[in-house]
Amino acid sequence: MTDRLYLDDDSVTTFEATVERALDDRIVLDRTGFYPTGGGQPHDTGTIRLTDPGETETVTRWRVVDVEMKDTVYHTVEPAEDGTTAAVTDDGATGAVTDDGTTAAVTDDGATAAPPEPGTEIVGDIDADRREAHSRYHTAQHLLSAVLLREFDARTTGNQLYHDHAHLDAAYDRFDAADLDRIEVRLNELVADDRPVTSYTMDRADAEATLDTDRTRIDLLPESIEELRIVEIGAANADDSRSETDGEPYDRTACAGTHVGTTAEIGEVVVTGRETKGSDEERVRFALAEHVDSGE
Ligand SMILES: [Zn+2]
Description:
The protein is an alpha+beta fold. The chain has four helices and 17 strands.
């Protein structure tokens, strides 16, 4: 399994790695900072370049257009399209060329650019703006899940985030306009609290004894998973008049996604609407304030 760097430090946006496998236009690395699609969070994008460009005059670079998790993390790559970054070697080829040529991509100038071969040392550069947006939306989703459970006894049943909007499904009869207002106010109070967001690993048995089963369905996780990554949103400060706890975290759940370091980094959140998803299931739409006013 590829070592997933974002699990230990989701602020990493540049990393070095070695190509382990190359399959058509997909590569497997020994370690990666690229987040693969999962848990309602879209994959990262970015580029991969050779650590040592060798004799070429320009940097050989591939665009990472998809990242997915199967038995390990697969990165779908294609040659960088802008001529400034695609390398052309003496024989006119870009990067390594496969023997049969059938899987090699072709750039605008006719050069062939297969993915980097196994053993190649590369540098991965993740699109930091897209990652940051996903981390902000993902952390906002944790807050929303916690608010709905604490204040409406509504369990989250699904969620999907994008770089400029998101939605969450919850087991609930019907949120009315006053409910949505209350949810939005509460979310922004939690943002203003600037609560710390931390992650750590926990043994499965400990997690089963500790986590709220209405917030985390550990029973749905494969039995092969023995350690869980826990993401925690901290308690309110002791002098917070709304302090609802005796030092217990506001929210705690198992999650392998990326998040920001404090709730203030999310920024203002707007609840943009709701719809019925089925019997006793509601969808709540939300967005960061900066994504709401622009032309919609
Ligand atoms: Zn998460």
